[in-house]
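CoA-transferase III family protein structure dump, as promised
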Amino acid sequence: MEPPLDGYVVVDLSAGIAGGYCTKLLADAGARVIKVEPPEGDWLRRWSASGACIAPGEDGALFGFLAGGKHSVLADPDTDRDLVTGLLDDADAVVWSRGSAVAESVVFTPLAIRSTHPHLTVTAITPFGLDGPWSDRPATEFTLQAWSGGIVGLGRGSADRAPVYVGGQVGEYLAGAYACAATLASRMRGGAELVDVSMLETSILGLTYYPVSYYEMLGRPWRDARRVTVPGIASAKDGLIDIGCGTAQQWFDLCAMTGHEEWIDENSPLTITEQANLHAEELYAWVAEHTVAEIRELATAFRIPNAPVANGANIDSLDHFVARGSFVTNPRGGFRQPVPPYRTQPDLLPPPRPAPRLGEHTELYRSRVSPPRKRNHGRDSRGLATGNAIPVGESGNRLPFEGLRVVDMTTFWAGPSCTHVLAMLGADVIHVESTRRPDGTRLIAGVPVTEEQWWERSPIFSGLNTNKRGITLDLQNEAGREVLNRLIATADVLVENFTPRVIDQLGLDFAAVQRIRPDIVMLRMPGFGLDGPWRDNPAFAYVIEAASGISWLTGYPDRNPYEPYSVGDPNAGIHALNALLVALEHRRRTGQGVLVEAAMVDAAINVAAEQVIEYSAYGALLQRDGNRGPAAAPQNLYRTNEIDEFGRADCWVAVAVASDEQWAGLCRATGREDWAADPSLGTAAGRRAEHDRLDEGLVAWCATRTGDEIVAALWEHGVPVAKVMQPHRQTELPQLAARGFFEEVSHPVNPRTPHSTLPFRMSRGPERVHVRPAPLLGEHNREVLTELGFTDAEITDLQERGVIGDVPAGYGRDARARK
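structure tokens r here:
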């Protein structure tokens, strides 16, 4: 069976992780990816996060993972322009980023390529986007986390230390995953456009939780202080374990599990977090008296989210990953690496393939593109490049997913974030809830139940569900299941993210769904997968982050790791979208339905892959190091002389020096001629060895200046720097304003509020992303059921029997009248 993207040709003009991961996802699905490298090769070939020595002629292990199955062509930007031009002639898409002499040649910039090769989808990945006042400013993944608000995030860390970033360069992988999805979305409408991906914007969506909408709608930030999650990641008798409470019921169950039923107070004025913090000492003592295995067995029985804390040394030996075959041996390097972040039935993905040697395919392609020949770039019936079809122009406003109907049975963050992109790009997404169990994000905004229509006031639900239609169905009722079956019969896609047992109990496995709609694509997004010993464990972001290794690299070396509590869900959502688009391509080519299993943890172990790769390749266990990191030195947060909006001396800037040129700029900006003249600081290794001394100097320099003064001084000299933003202040960034990242959205219950959009701009549109607000509970019951052929009398009967409704169970009109 041909893989879904067989025949799709992508020229990779990127350098580094983000572009490499984007094109890896494409290559995994069968695309032919031609990596064009300068004579010295992609710098990633020489990269090791642990600083391992890579022998001449060999490649770094991370490159071996990211470049699997690709072709390598060497090109001198001055003498091989015809070669690169010929590759572009025969391609369908280009993925571009700065960092390569070829990509930065004036004839191969994104706009230049679009001008000379209008048939291509050109996907550009840059820190801030191709336009706007910051488009040429220096940045690193670390400083972008600061600008996004992701370092402050959801109150991660503790107040006695600086806030801390999410380790492991997760922002690079998020950008790559979004770039891949945007490229495939463009492909669905024929390509021929520029896709402009902003890493700042992908960081906002991946590391913060709709903070602007939250602040504007409710008048308060999600968190106003840093506090360690309790119990969170705690020390058991024999190791680290993550235990979480995402709901009130889970807190009650935790009280019972630890033998403290007296802590349960359903009428407490305190939040779950505040109640847990009151009893932190007793909870930590209980955990310390038990082994990880004992706690996990108990917590799983109580349905409390839990996971061991994985790292590069232990992750591929954890029983769940062994049972699922989650890690394989790299075919060339011999190290361990994760399998692709999704699985399909039928199996659509080719087996792992080796990365190319530097320039391995140069002569092959040189012979193909020489002598030059005239090409007429167009599309065949599959949307692939041909020499005789009519070119696809910029005209036409058809959105990528117009005509696609999606039944969205998802809840909370991961699933709705996947279907939200579909809705924003034109799909008819019908969000299915029930009055007994509304979408969980309706319930976690902290809106008192005494407020009128409190369930409609969640900024999180609003941020995740614009452009969707909403219905309610009681699926415990046979009549509700019949309505769902009739809806599925009209759908192209069914998406759900419950634990597997829930769908099994409803009788909605893939075989049952295919009996209703044989060619449907069913996307399942369980936390830990459809099989394996952790299959039925509840999965929230924090346990996914712990189980995958993301948490291990987040925090300070002398403390237990901090839960990122952010990336696990949106990372799963964007990876699931990529999986869905690949499956839809297979369906389009063959007419065959596909089951897609996009487990949250599989997406997470892919973006955390470097840990197991470094350990198995070099024996190096990567460690958390506060705000320092392997990609830059010095790299840290430094306090400014300001008082924050909460009255605290808690304002910070992020500085990251990733090159010798940036080091020289830092010395000039700070007036440290002594640093510039010190030969021990002339190399990255030397600066890393002297990090403490450099930190002392930067602490003193920053302490007398405002964040704006520091940013202006360092940016003037080409140094990556950022203010550590409170996430609800994202709208104050002029770059986001210039790109229109936020759009005002009206709502029948809530005030007009800014909502974040997509982290990429497509030259063929849409001009505006949000065209309707998130649906009220059951708002479109009558509309959708009428489309399915139900009469008014039948719809009224379903409402009277409680099969459909528009208020949560227990909060009906009579209950509101008694309030």
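The domain at 633-719 is CATH 3.30.1540.10 (formyl-coa transferase, domain 3).
lmk if u need the other ones
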